Amino acid sequence: MIDMQQTKIKVNFSRVLGTPLVPLCARAKISKEYSSLFNDAKAIELIEQIDYDFLTLEKSSGDYLLFATAARAMQFDNKVKAYIKEHPHASVVNLGAGFDTGFYRVDNGAIHWYDLDLPEIIEVRKHLLPEMNRTACIANSFLDPGWCQAIKNENGIFMIAGGLFRFFDEAQVRQFFSLIADRLPGSEIVFEAESKSSNDVDGRCGAYGAGWSDEEPEKRDAMQEDCIRALKNGWTILPQSLKSQMIGALTTSTRPQSAEWDDFETWWDQLSAQEKGEAMSDFFFGFTCKCPLEDASEMVAWDDRITVVDQFPLFRDIPRDPSLSMSVRQFMDYTDEKGRIKIVHVRV
Ligand SMILES: C[S@@+](CC[C@H](N)C(=O)[O-])C[C@H]1O[C@@H](n2cnc3c(N)ncnc32)[C@H](O)[C@@H]1O
């Protein structure tokens, strides 16, 4: 997975569910552009070390997605900081850690921090972010009970799961919470939950359009219309410019696991019109959460050992900085008003 011959690290993510490069890119970009809101110097350092076209990723992801992803990190950081203030020697477990540099943002000099991810990601992670005194990597699935025994369980356990549960069915997510209730009772867990409405087409097209500049509202609106028509009518009606944007976006979300990263366009060209239509719809729904949750209280029916500590809209208390584009600010309001994405905090 790692090409050691190169100065920069080349990573092949073909087998990984949900690329960790988007959130890394988001944290670096938002740190660079809005350092008063969020500061992740380590993320900026990391993207310099990885051989990847982050600029294209940035463009295809769109401003809203990048800001929303960084907002999740801001909210998680606040939650971790509050917990470790009360439990300074706690264990913090970052589930589906990817290349998150949360430890560097919140460390109090006493916590124990665990980054858990699939073996192929951990291999790269260890290279980029070597384990230290109080940090450890765990190469395992969060659904495997085996990793629980590696966690120091004397001073409280706090877990974060960013951009992880959305790839799993509700049954699997429930299984995870029951696993924690069995093996590490008393743990607190923070994650983002998406409502069913966050999966609808309008939202996706809107979010997609939000990536376009406010200086060109007609163009942005036309793009959204194109997106909706495309979803209804199929690939052939799309202008080439939008096809390219979609290909860019698809590489980050819905590429088939079997295709090699660099072979994306070859894979795309081989698809039939119908498959392209399906892939496009995957593009819109590729961000679809497989286990939407309208309200955290629903979790109590999953397992009565779950207690809801807190839940609130993703952008709560995050300043609508005037330097953010108008469409990003509008989307923050829209997302919060509709309860599309929530930060959920539970104890098991
Ligand atoms: C969208 S990324 C989010 C990464 C990180 N939480 C962040 O915010 O930067 C999703 C991560 O979940 C990891 N993942 C997917 N399936 C997993 C599993 N079964 N167990 C643990 N991690 C998993 C992926 O490898 C990837 O790093």
Automatic annotation (TrEMBL):
Segments traversing the membrane: none
Stored Gene3D superfamilies: Vaccinia Virus protein VP39
Molecular function GO labels: methyltransferase activity
GO biological process terms held by the UniProt record: methylation
InterPro entries: Ppm1/Ppm2/Tcmp, SAM-dependent_MTases_sf
Protein keywords: Methyltransferase, Transferase
UniProt-listed Pfam families: LCM
Protein name: Tetracenomycin polyketide synthesis O-methyltransferase TcmP
Biological source species: Methanosarcina acetivorans (strain ATCC 35395 / DSM 2834 / JCM 12185 / C2A)
